[in-house]
Amino acid sequence: MTVSTIRQIKQQIQQLTNGESDNQQPSFWFTDWLVHVIDKPAIALMTDEDYQLSDSEVARFNDGVVKMQQGIPLAYLTGQQEFWSLSFRVNEHTLIPRPDTEVLVEQVLNWINVQPVQLNTKRLLDLGTGSGCIAISLAYELKHANWQIVAVDLSSEALEVAQHNAVSNNVANVEFIQSSWYQALPICDEPQFDIIVSNPPYIDETDEHLAGLTAEPISALSAPNQGLADIEHIVQQATIYLCTGGLLAIEHGYDQGNAVRKLFLDSGFESVHTVKDYGGNDRVTLGQVQ
Ligand code: GLN
Predict the structure, then answer these.
(1) CA distance readout (Å), 135 to 53, 181, 245
(2) Check whether domain 80-289 has CATH 3.40.50.150, yes or no
(3) Is the CB of 107 under 6 A from ligand 1?
(4) Ligand 1: does its nearest atom lie under 6 Å from the Cβ of 164?
């Protein structure tokens, strides 16, 4: 039987993350994985260094280390990711929520806050919801307001995950529909939505960053036409579904701000502007239907 204490595993982690290499996993992946495997509060890594892991805990830890070294992200091993202070189930059918996407949620809430108060029910559409992180975070914040949220995704597996996340985060005001963008939405005489949001695939198919994102669904990451094909479709169709004065907010790549603003302007949006992410890069463009 191998004897492995938390202290020894911490030394092992230090060795694993010692080398200088670009594609190295961040050391918190290994420590967070250790915390997950031993199922103790994170503080145990400091206060309980003599804790002796069982053989099965050691085997599970090592198995996860190998997977992470093969490029599988921590979130797919633990099956969960924090976003907007909520906990989301994720798996290989969903993108792992990024902190930068919180900028999109924040901007939409800011916009809602400055609108004149109206008593009638408002509707928001999230296109390509994946784990549901955007729709569910907004639903959570708007729980006591009069908002109905519709979230669509092409993948039935992703919708299963999103539906689980709505239940686990206690939000009831989200309806999930399987659809390729707007396709399965009913066409009504009047536009149906006050807000449309999306974090669509936007990475250029030839972008070298894709090589580091092999574990995540490529259909959620990359799009033709320099990554702009899906954004273009979403922007061009948005005016059919958005009420007058309604908001469109789309996440995009750091170098796509100009192109996305042009798409918004070409479709007749006004107050078009781009907001930067926490790293200072262009990330979210917003505009209103005239
Ligand atoms: N922001 C993600 C990344 O660069 C990509 C998300 C997306 O394509 N929607 O890793």
Answers:
(1) 39, 15, 21
(2) yes
(3) no
(4) no
